[in-house]
Specification:
40% of the residues lie in helices and 19% in strands. It is an alpha/beta fold.
């Protein structure tokens, strides 16, 4: 154990990391630096430095990473259009590589030779943290207490007893019902009654958004302006990335936008049920998709949708710091050169629907799309096009011989003479 001299621990101030910190000190007999990343958790980090020091940390570093989180992680993901399994907007997944990156940076600055996290052996986060550690500094020792056979704190009750015995400050004013993770993009809820997919999420579950039953009876409109695929304006005014997210979370949350109930396939093999609130993220994804419909040509749009699936897997699986992800970002950036314009959205009773979109780079031609036939479109061109397009089908039918078409028997109408 003397091989480890100093550890940088990803620290949140919750029960798990509060007991992991002194456990690391006891087992390895070394200095532990706590690192807490401010990613938009609200009041969760209040007093975190004082708590970490009281729990035995030699130092507690708190970094406000909200701006970097938006510009270097959320916006690239937004431009890609990545959604995991048709419903998960990757809120927790996209944050873990950023936290782990700063752990590595702090370890290098502070002369630490190990990094640690509090993710369990059943979840995806362990992979996301450890792949980042491996990619950025493979010389660092990775310590994952939940996968250590000597880690005896396998229940909440055991962790509470451990903390009490060592006078570690923990908040027992409220019983923690759900396992949650929150940042500027979303909040996730897992565990407790949600472990049974038959159970409906209760109204008290929601944190960032109102239950649908308590949303306003009148719709609200919001307008988002984009430049090259990046959201820069809100209701006509330029705003910072953090303000953009905080404002959209507030207005979207008021109307219950972005609530998703999913049973997803974890990377580690099992299915898990989670309920997600992503109000601001849902608004931005809906708006961005609408603007792309106007600005991207058909082939680029269709191919981009295929590549977005792979990008979602990379983010979900913690493969952020990989050559493929970096290469895909360059592809997505090139597709966004013309994705500039404004999108108006209607928020009402959990729905976020398109109410208008415009762009100086729009490929939409009203005269061509109109049902009115004009000189700009020669309808006879379609005759030859359809003949060529359908030629393989026609040849297959001719070579296959005449086939009897099957279907529901249609009764012949009797003539008036026959009925007299």
């Amino acid at each position: 154990m003397s091989q480890v001299k100093k550890i940088v621990l990803a620290y949140s101030g919750g029960l798990d990391t509060s007991v992991i910190l002194p456990w690391l000190k006891e087992k390895y007999g070394c200095e532990v630096i706590a690192f807490a990343a401010e990613l938009g958790q609200g009041s969760e980090l209040k007093g975190v430095k004082k708590k970490a020091l009281a729990s035995g940390a030699s130092k507690c570093i708190v970094a406000d990473l909200r701006e970097e989180f938006c510009t270097d992680y959320l916006w690239p993901m937004l431009k890609s259009g990545a959604i995991y399994e048709n419903g998960y907007l990757l809120g927790t997944s996209i944050a873990r590589p950023l936290i782990a990156k700063y752990q590595v940076m702090i370890a290098q600055q502070e002369g630490a030779d190990a990094v640690s996290h509090g993710a369990t052996g059943k979840g995806n986060d362990q992979v996301r943290f450890e792949l980042t550690f491996m990619a950025l500094d493979p010389s660092l020792k990775i310590i994952a207490p939940w996968k250590d056979t000597s880690f005896e704190l396998t229940s909440r009750e055991a962790a509470v007893d451990y903390a009490k015995a060592r006078n570690i400050p923990i908040d027992q004013s409220k019983k923690k019902i759900y396992s949650r993770d929150r940042n500027l993009w979303h909040i996730s809820h897992e565990g407790a009654d949600l472990e049974d997919p038959w159970n409906e999420p209760q109204d008290h579950l929601f944190v960032m958004s109102n239950p649908i039953s308590k949303t306003p009876a009148r719709a609200e409109y919001v307008e988002v302006g984009f430049e090259k695929g990046v959201p820069v304006k809100l209701n006509g005014k330029k705003v910072s990335p953090v303000t953009m997210m905080e404002t959209l979370n507030a207005v979207g949350g008021k109307h219950g936008v972005g609530q998703a109930d999913l049973v997803e396939n974890r990377l580690v093999g099992m299915k898990s049920r989670g309920v997600y609130e992503t109000p601001g993220g849902t608004i931005l994804m809906t708006a961005h998709r609408a603007l792309e419909m106007l600005c991207l040509d058909r082939e680029t749009s269709h191919y981009k949708a295929q590549v977005a699936l792979k990008y979602a897997d990379l983010v979900y699986n913690g493969q952020w710091f990989t050559p493929l992800r970096e290469a895909l970002d360059k592809f997505f950036d090139s597709t966004q050169e013309k994705v500039t314009g404004d999108v108006r959205l209607k928020l009402f009773k959990g729905n976020c629907t398109l109410a208008g979109v415009k762009s100086p780079n729009s490929l939409y031609a009203g005269d061509l799309a109109s049902f009115t036939m004009g000189a700009e479109y020669d309808s006879t061109d379609a005759t030859g096009f359809i003949r060529l397009f359908g030629l393989p089908m026609k040849v297959a039918a001719l070579k296959g011989g005449k086939k009897k078409v099957k279907g529901k028997k249609v009764a012949k109408k009797k003539s008036k003479k026959a009925t007299k």
